[in-house]
Amino acid sequence: MQVFHGINEDKRGNIYSERGLFDLYCAQNPSQAVMLKPFEKERGYFRVVTTGWLKLDAILKYSGHDQRYDRPQILFASTFTPSLSSAEALYEEIKHLSQNTRWQWLVTLHPKMAEHTVKKYVGLENDNLSFFDTGEVINLLHRADAMVCDNSSILRSSSSWASPSSHSETECHSPA
User: Fold this and answer.
1) In terms of pLDDT, which residue wins out, 28 or 45?
2) Does 172 reside within a domain?
3) What are the DSSP calls for 68-106, one per residue?
């Protein structure tokens, strides 16, 4: 079974080719399913179904508690594709900003991120920066007051219900 996970699966102009690996393709929307439907009829050994955006169910049906924090919560999320990722480019700046007690940094990186990059960010953990596995993404989206993001699917996931900065009563100001 192939389950397409990100809302912005088209970010690189993806056109899905059927490679004989799955007997079921779970597409998020009809426009995604239409790319595989011709192969379904032609080859006959797999099905294509439109399941909706499974990730959105968890976002929209969030049952966690809304906790207040004493300072703005800034989420940094990055995709793993080197040409699309900002993780390496922003590392030194986030390292610098994480020394400031005005903000709490919440960092999560795509599970396929290069191991050396993950280790660098995990090494930044301090009272002002916490690193989270991607299993915490839904909680982080609800916790964040602002987000710094590249072309990661998390950006479109968050904008589907409300961008982090749109539900915050705190202000985030850049350092002088």
Assistant:
1) 45
2) no
3) --SS-EEEEEE-S-TTT--HHHHHHHHHHHTT-TT-EEE
Q: What single DSSP character describes residue 41?
A: H
| CA–CA distance, 106 with 146 (Å, rounded to integer) | 10
Same domain, 78 and 162: yes
Distance in angstroms between the alpha carbons of the first and the last residue of the chain: 51
Q: Tell me which amino acid residue 147 is.
A: M
Residue 138 lies in a domain: yes
DSSP state of 64: -
Lowest mean pLDDT of 4-8, 92-96, 162-166, name the range: 162-166
Say if residue 106 is in the same domain as residue 139.
yes
Ramachandran category for residue 69: left, alpha or beta (phi over 0 → left; psi -120 to 50 → alpha): beta
What domain range is 35 assigned to?
2-55
With tokens 């610098």, the residue in question is 96
Q: Is the pLDDT of residue 62 over 90?
A: no
